[in-house]
Description:
Blueprint: E1 2-14, E2 17-27, E3 30-35, E4 43-46, E5 51-54, E6 56-61, H1 81-95, H2 98-114, E7 117-122, H3 133-144, E8 147-150, E9 153-154, H4 160-174, E10 181-183, E11 185-189, H5 195-208, E12 212-216, H6 220-230, H7 234-241, E13 249-252, H8 258-267, E14 270-273, H9 275-280, H10 288-291, E15 295-297, H11 306-320, H12 327-344, E16 360-363, H13 376-382, E17 389-394, E18 397-401, E19 404-405, H14 410-429
Helix pairs in contact: 1-14, 2-3, 2-14, 4-5, 7-8, 11-12, 12-13
The protein binds zinc ion.
Amino acid sequence: MTLLLAGGAVVTSLDPVAMTRADVLVRDGRIVGLGPVDAPDAELIDCSGCLVIPGNVCAHHHLYSALARGMPYRLEPPESFVQVLQRVWWRLDRALDEEAVWLSAWSGGADALLAGTTTIVDHHASPNAIAGSLDGIAEALGDLGARSVLCYEVTDRDGPERATAGLEENLRFCKGGFPLALGMVGAHASFTLSTETLAGCVEVARDADAGIHIHVAEDEADERDALARFGVRVVERLAEAGALGPRSLLAHCVHVDEREIALIRQTGAWVAHNARSNMNNRVGRAPIGALGPTVALGTDGIDGDLFAESRTAFWRAREADPSVGPSWILERMAASARFAAAVYEEPLLGTIRPSAPADLVVLAYDPPTPVTAENLAGHWAFGLSARHVRDVLVHGDVVVRKRRLTRVDEPEVRARCRGAAAELWRRMDALEAHPFDPEGSG
Ligand SMILES: [Zn+2]
């Protein structure tokens, strides 16, 4: 099928910003024409008065948390980050079954697409439904038409059998089978990984020819544990284990010190910054300026809305450093897309240029001031939001049209989600706080 997105203001690149008024011709998943295009046989999407931008990328998500929205909570309120895990997320993940995993992925994926996020980099945990869980997520996202990078969170906190099952799930999934869902090797965090299990992750990453996606120094507890157990800091431990490289994706990096920052920059590892989650969990400020050009943006399971995430991240960054300007947002959005481009070996992913994969978003944005390449960042910081998302294309398929998902019956599956959520909450309610405690947590 050939599509012609006609008459829009097209943002062909976010970093450096480049804009042109042009038609975009899409065929076989790719952009095949840009400029005044004459294609009488193409299906027309009128984009006049609209902005056309590259699809947003969420560089760190937890789709499994989608059915946690509004759930009840009966334990003592957590006071530390580790207690948040023990009392909330490590109870939720153990309550997930196969159906809840599928519906969570579907629900989170639907929200992401409707917010203009075309690629989701996910980090998944369901200790009582490990085998095949990544296939379930890939199928749910495939039904919606989203692009993704998936992994299973390997950890020792639920015992050696589940650690092994997690490694096997990563290896199995990385062998492929889903053109729009590629694999990484997921690892929870240094503080829940033994030497042997971390080595297992490195080995699987080597066998699968994939990068490692891991939480790093999200809370000071991760650093305390690494120092207590191994006498080194988290990033040093990962480097010594062979887990740090240009394909690694390190989520958070809030508490990394100068030496760790230097190691990250030397190896070219990617960093997923999750500003809203860091604020919500009160874990501190990530040294994002020092971490450099590989800092991408994630939502850490809060939602799939990178407009909301990037704006909050900008204000949070500006609060700490007045030299941060709106262009910082577009640089981060572009870095997130560069990460996805690297995983997919599609260097033009994240741009709207001839031969790039056609992942793009049409924004019905009628601003009170002119939009140009020079001031797009200002519009992003102070004007654009998910409410402007009208149409979304992933790999050339129209997956959102006129603000509706095109390939699925949204009300029907949302109703199924609510039914499954009630059961999930009941199973979770029967679980007590997770007993796993990191070294040095007091
Ligand atoms: Zn996370």
